[in-house]
Specification:
By secondary structure, this protein is an alpha/beta fold. It is built from ten helices and 13 strands. The strands form four sheets. A five-stranded mixed beta sheet has the order 1-7-6-4-5, with helices on both faces. It binds oxa(dethia)-CoA.
């Protein structure tokens, strides 16, 4: 697709130590472990820390794995919908904390943010960047009303990061599809000083449709068919959404990476957390095709097909 491409050379994660189980939540909320597991696939989530703190932890781990120093990074791109402050961007805190000398900016495309950021990073590499640190980090717990059960049972905190390096030739990214429908922004929102609100049922319906459509487009644009996808790294919002999307795409559910059981919905951190899990468990080999696909507030959605290795 492009003459100069990007290859992921390192990855890392950052998670709070505190584990909150479904049983813990049912102590203060009118809910129970069976309902949460059956309706969402979530068993527990991590809660705590700051978005910048988790991002720094993930970023340092990714740099270590890539064998790179902070001063070799041209820019840090932080996907987050829960910045530590409104101004400056949380990427500035991350840049300083890691000791990166290059640029820093935030991307907010809610839960699609990491795929948006990774796509932007590939574009920067195409016009000359050598090495970028792309992070998805969230502390959704900070904008959650813990006295209300509809959202609080879903969310978790965490971060995942990758180092993307330039190579001659096409690199890993075979195709991408970024989409949005701002007329649906009322379905998932958080006003200044408020709490996260979502219309779960409507998002569920729309999510399956846009994930399937954008994934089909990205797969076709990569010159592939769904049976040639070896691994799906989906946004972790609800196990039933992942199952329904795989079924409609005609991709066996076993090919989907699932970490929602351990981390809940971590918005833009969920795809890099799932990717790291797949790599740690040797589920992704050189030459295989991986589909990253997500959706979230905006509504936004994003799918990308990568050919691993390179
Ligand atoms: O990152 C992207 C953004 N978010 C999403 O993708 C969320 C997408 N939506 C969902 O995941 C699901 O819609 C939810 C998990 C949020 C809700 O699942 P649902 O199957 O749509 O449940 P529901 O809202 O239709 O509620 C079913 C029942 C209701 O009771 P009645 O009316 O049938 O008596 C609710 O009051 O379950 C009740 N309920 C609960 N019960 C125990 C709702 N929340 C809870 C709860 N514990 N936490």
């Amino acid at each position: 697709m492009i003459g100069r491409g990007g290859v992921i050379t390192g990855y890392g994660i950052g998670l709070p130590d505190k584990v909150v189980t479904n049983d813990d939540l049912s102590l203060t909320l009118d809910t129970n472990d069976a309902w949460i597991r059956e309706r969402t696939g979530i068993r527990e989530r991590r809660i705590g820390g700051t978005t910048s703190g988790l991002a720094i932890e993930a970023g340092l781990a990714a740099l270590k794995k890539a064998g790179r120093r902070p001063d070799e990074i041209d820019a840090v791109i932080l996907a987050t919908t829960t910045p530590d402050q409104i101004v400056p961007g949380t990427s500035a805190t991350v840049q300083d904390g890691i000791g990166i000398t290059g640029g820093a900016f935030d991307v907010n495309a809610a839960c699609s943010g990491f795929v948006y950021a990774l796509t932007v990073a590939h574009g920067m590499i195409a016009i000359g960047a050598e090495r970028l640190l792309v992070i998805g980090a969230e502390t959704l717990s900070k904008i959650t009303d813990w006295d209300e059960r509809s959202v609080s049972i879903l969310v978790g905190d965490g971060a995942g990061a990758v180092v993307l390096e330039a190579v001659d030739g096409p690199g890993q990214l075979m195709s991408y599809k970024l989409g949005a429908d701002g007329s649906l922004r009322h379905l998932l929102k958080c006003d200044h000083g408020g709490y996260l609100y979502m219309n779960g049922k409507e998002i569920f319906r729309k999510a399956v449709a846009v994930v399937v459509e954008s994934a089909q487009q990205a797969i076709a644009e990569a010159g592939l068919t769904p049976d040639q996808i070896d691994l799906v790294v989906p946004h972790q919002a609800n196990l039933r959404i992942i199952s329904a999307a795989c079924q409609r795409l005609g991709i066996p559910e076993e090919k989907a990476v699932v970490v929602i059981d351990r981390y809940g919905n971590t918005s833009s951190a969920s795809i890099p957390l799932a990717l790291a899990d797949a790599l740690d468990t040797d589920r992704l080999q050189a030459g295989q095709h991986v589909l990253l696909t997500g959706f979230g507030g905006g509504m936004t959605w994003a799918s990308a097909v990568l050919k691993w290795g390179g």
